Here is the input.
Amino acid sequence: MTKEITVIGVGQMGTGIAQSALQAGYNVILIDKNQEFLDKGFARLTDNLGKAVERGKITADEKARLLGNVTLARSMDGIGKSDFVIEAVPEILDLKMDVFRNADKFCSKSAIIATNTSSILINKLATAVSDPSRFIGLHFFNPANVMKLVEVVVGTNTSQATMSSSLEFITSLGKTPVKVNDAPGFISNRILMAFINEAASDLQHGIAEKEAIDSIAKLGFNHPMGPIELADFIGLDVCKDIMDFIYLETKDGKFKPADIIVKLVQDGKLGRKSGEGFYKYK
Ligand SMILES: NC(=O)c1ccc[n+]([C@@H]2O[C@H](COP(=O)([O-])OP(=O)(O)OC[C@H]3O[C@@H](n4cnc5c(N)ncnc54)[C@H](O)[C@@H]3O)[C@@H](O)[C@H]2O)c1
Here is the structure.
């Protein structure tokens, strides 16, 4: 049974993945590029577990014990005992390839190396590791400590054993794995990004106010969040990166980011995480 996992990149997603694994009984190594990001990630994790205590999901003692199962690191030399190494660094191909080349040097020869990429082809990322049969996409959803779905993306060389262990691991987190084949954006983000991009473009063309667009999705389609709110929640930089990548790979115009998204990202208005995106946040 898997006992220890490593999460590389302790941002929004990495923190949520780590929390799910801790609460399911795993030891977790958290790796980020510098101490400031590690400290921020650990503070977010501490805060999230504090909320779980407030909601009565875990006790204060359990929170302290779970945080004691976390190891913070800036280099990968201590990941040799991890059964899963999960990458959650920004959606930039070269950055991810570097991370995988490095992780491959330090992880065990039986470890499964997984990417949380939202869009990049698994077959492309798998070329960075020595054994692509142990490479897979584990696409968690945001917030990863809450959302049940994990899109399990199988590359051409992913082995049956890697897939079975991954399905077992995801199930052990109390989540539901759904298997899909490799394609830019997989299933979830091909549907979602086309939807968000259309909503942004409708706003840009003055067809409706952002609140109206969100209300239509919430009241008319029964979505818990409208597409504009959701884009802010995901992060407009993340959305743009995903759209850019799917567009580059497919040349399908519906994925070319609307000018309004490009402009907000250029202005540093990245959504909730930066305090402003389409909407303003406190
Ligand atoms: N935000 C979402 O809703 C969402 C949902 C599903 C998947 N994803 C995917 O998850 C990945 C991470 O997204 P996020 O929103 O958590 O990003 P984020 O910006 O919140 O976090 C990324 C983290 O990676 C760290 N990092 C950067 N370079 C690094 C390196 N070389 N080594 C170690 N750490 C490094 C950063 O310091 C940061 O802490 C992306 O591939 C994204 O597409 C995001």
The pocket of nicotinamide-adenine-dinucleotide is lined by residues 8-14, 31-33, 37, 41, 88-91, 95, 99, 116-118, 140-142, 234-235, 238 (CB under 6 Å).
